[in-house]
Amino acid sequence: MFRSQISNLIPLFFTGLLSAQVPGEAEKAKNARVILDAWHQESPRAEERTLHFVLWTPNDREPPHQHEARLGRIMEHIQNFYGKEMDRLGFGPRSINLPRDPDGQVKIHLIKGDHPTAHYQKSSGSDIRKECLPVLRKAGINAEKETLVIFCNLATWDPEKLSFVHNSPYYAGGNHQSGTAWQLDSPELDTKNLPLKKPIIRDGEYGRISLGKHNSIFIGGVCHELGHALGLPHCKQRPDESARGTALMGSGNRTYGDELRREGKGSFLTLAHALRLASHPQFSGSTKGMNLPVKSSISNLKITAQGKSIQVSGTLSADPPAYAVVAYFDPEGGGDYNSATTTAVPDTNGKFSLSCDALPPGKSGELRLIPLHVNGSTGGWMSQTKFRYPYSVAKDGTPELSTFQIKDALAPLIEALNKRDRTRAQGLAREVEGSAGLIANNLLTRGGNPTKIPAQIDGVILKKIPLTNFKPTAAKVGWGRPAYNFLPDPSLLLEAGGKIFTTGIYAHAPASHTYDLGKKFTSLTGTAGVAAGRRGSVQFEIKGDGKTLWRSKTLKAGNLAPYKVDLKGVNKIELLTHPTNDGSASDWALWLAPTLESK
Asked: Which of 284, 308, 326 is the last residue of a domain?
């Protein structure tokens, strides 16, 4: 049964968070709770799970002075923040649970590392966690089934010079079953310091700031990273939410407690993330079905543009049931920090509808729909959802959905091809028209089987001709096999930067494609990009007779780089893709619509 209140929620400070509801939020929370409560109250499995805290320190350092009481205050403050925000949004004061020792203090496990300070870096989170596991096992804690917060004693605070630097892991990840947040600890981090405008300190990353702002950033960081450990992705406040302050899972890790110094409105929790937390066992007090596998599908999906908003409707089927759908409208660039969220609660037949007008002009983006299951699951991290739909927004703010419409038209064909049902695929391809029809033909033929190289072309040369009409003299890709006019992935489509291209070359880095031109062409035009949904970063290069003719900046998914190179007198070209500093993982590079031109 759902917990109705959290003990020890101290009414601290959060005066900036009591603003009025955004219209419709209270009704959505109420309707979501009806579905949640009904499911959990039938054959309930009440269980109060707690977070687990570690103060980890290298073997040549002692822990910061009185760390137990200070970290306890920080976590109680954060517990209060989550509880007040959940209550404000209509879920009651549900919040995280803190473990207590026999004296009622927050329990912190002190663990010494295996090495001195110099051995560890910001990237040492995995190694530090491994060092913690044996101690936690002895305490009866299975880190694979619990949520951990590991405070790392890798910061240097000089109380005389008022200077601070750190070399600590500072990230997190998790879901409704388990998670880990790596944080830093330092003796000047204390909720008592949040209201202070003085003294001014020198922070190694943020420069000269007040001690209070320094605490806002790093205590806010604990609150933010804990959100990731609980399964929350990033998002940004919509314009209609901005009166509340900054979304915690956007840049709210830097504004936490700003209202105490009257330097801003502070941080808040979006309804999208309150809905996600409502079924998390930490917040619900229920572990019913926590480990059940989940299934979901959306039928009758419609995505349309109305004015400067995108409207979405459909029918959701889910097992276990879903009590809400969260939509993330994620514009290109900025990772997912600038995602706008909106929400819907399905009716008794699974029908839902939502809309969003917080769409930055002149950018492409991706809509991700996340079903929230009553057992706390979302089916995976946000980037893993199968419900992903591209869109773009014109410079005047008008949404453009042709990419979605193409994908929607081709979805039955792609399904048939993935099932190797060629007869059905051929029939479906005949029903598709326009640019989608050209793509359908390319998918059926898997790019065809060109027999000539460009130098062998006879007679009159067309003004423009796709490079993929020719075979290369040599081709090599970093993963899989060379592919032309389709992506060697179940999605099949050449999608990048919010667009779908009819022709293109798959070139997972490192890759090279060589074409003999016989000096018959004057230019090559096209676009370079990384396949949608991939996390790699790639640099593209075109060489003519061994000389670099064009080189792109480093590109990630969402960014496109058009090119036009002069081929007059060029006998041979090489299309090269290079991995960058992050390695070659997920470097799904694409040469899109490469086109040879002649006089």
From this structure: 284
